[in-house]
Design brief:
Strand content: under 5%
CATH architecture: Up-down Bundle
Number of strands: 0
Shape: elongated
Order of helices and strands: HHHHHHH
Radius of gyration: 19 Å
Helix content: over 70%
Structural class: mainly alpha
CATH class: Mainly Alpha
Number of helices: 7
Distance between the termini: 45 Å
C-alpha cells in the first residue's frame, strides 16, 4: 500500500488494490468500506426527505440521525485502514516459526488488534443498522428502496466483520478468552439478524 489512506483511493484504485496479490486491503477493509457506503446512502435518504413539508415535525430527529451517519461514514473509512494495518502486522509475524512467534509479546498484541479492529467495524455497523432502521417511518417512501439497500449493506458489514473476528479467535491461547470472544460474536450476529428480521416485517 502507498502512504495514502484507503479512503483517499478512487473506487477503481481500491478495487485494483483489493484484487492484487497482496494481503491488504482484504475482507476486513471491504466490510468497513461497505459500511461507509451504507451510512452515506442513509444520509442521502435524509437529504431528500428533509425538504418535504410532511416530514417537518421529524427534522430534529432526522438531523440527529444524520449526524450519527456522517460520523459513522468517516469512522468506517478510518477503520478500514486500522483493519488493514492490523492484518499486515499479524501477517508479518505469522511467517515466523510458531514457537518463536508465540513467545514474542508482539504476537499477542498483533493478534488482539487483528481481533479488535474488525470488532470495532462490527460494532459501528450494528449502530448504523439501528440508526437506519429508525428512519423507516420518518422518511419519504420514494426512498424506501435506497433505505432498504442501506440496511442490507449495514447488515452485510456486520456479518463480514464478524467473520474476520471469528477466523482469528482460535489463535488465542487462553481458552476462556476464546470462549468469551466467540460468545460475543454470536451475540452480535444474533442482534443483527433480529434487527434485520424486524425491519423486513415492516410494510
Amino acid at each position: 500500500m502507498t502512504a495514502r489512506t484507503l479512503g483517499d483511493l478512487s473506487m477503481r484504485d481500491f478495487c485494483d488494490a483489493l484484487a492484487a496479490h497482496q494481503p491488504t486491503p482484504g475482507g476486513g477493509a471491504t466490510s468497513a468500506v461497505v459500511l461507509a457506503q451504507s451510512a452515506a446512502l442513509g444520509s442521502m435518504v435524509i437529504a431528500y426527505t428533509k425538504d418535504k413539508s410532511k416530514f417537518a415535525a421529524h427534522l430534529p430527529r432526522l438531523a440527529r440521525i444524520d449526524q450519527l451517519l456522517v460520523a459513522a461514514r468517516h469512522e468506517a473509512l478510518l477503520l478500514a485502514d486500522r483493519d488493514a494495518a492490523a492484518y499486515d502486522a499479524l501477517s508479518a509475524l505469522w511467517k515466523r516459526p510458531a514457537a518463536e512467534r508465540s513467545a514474542d509479546p508482539a504476537w499477542a498484541a498483533a493478534l488482539e488488534e487483528a481481533i479488535a479492529a474488525p470488532t470495532a467495524i462490527a460494532d459501528l455497523a450494528l449502530a448504523t443498522q439501528a440508526a437506519l432502521a429508525s428512519l423507516r417511518e420518518i422518511t419519504s417512501k420514494q426512498l424506501a428502496s435506497d433505505l432498504r439497500i442501506a440496511l442490507m449493506l449495514a447488515a452485510a458489514a456486520v456479518h463480514c466483520a464478524l467473520l474476520n473476528v471469528e477466523v482469528n479467535m482460535p489463535l488465542r491461547t487462553d481458552a476462556q478468552a476464546r470462549d468469551e470472544g466467540q460468545r460475543s460474536v454470536e451475540s452480535k450476529r444474533a442482534t443483527c439478524d433480529r434487527l434485520s428480521t424486524a425491519v423486513a416485517a415492516v410494510p
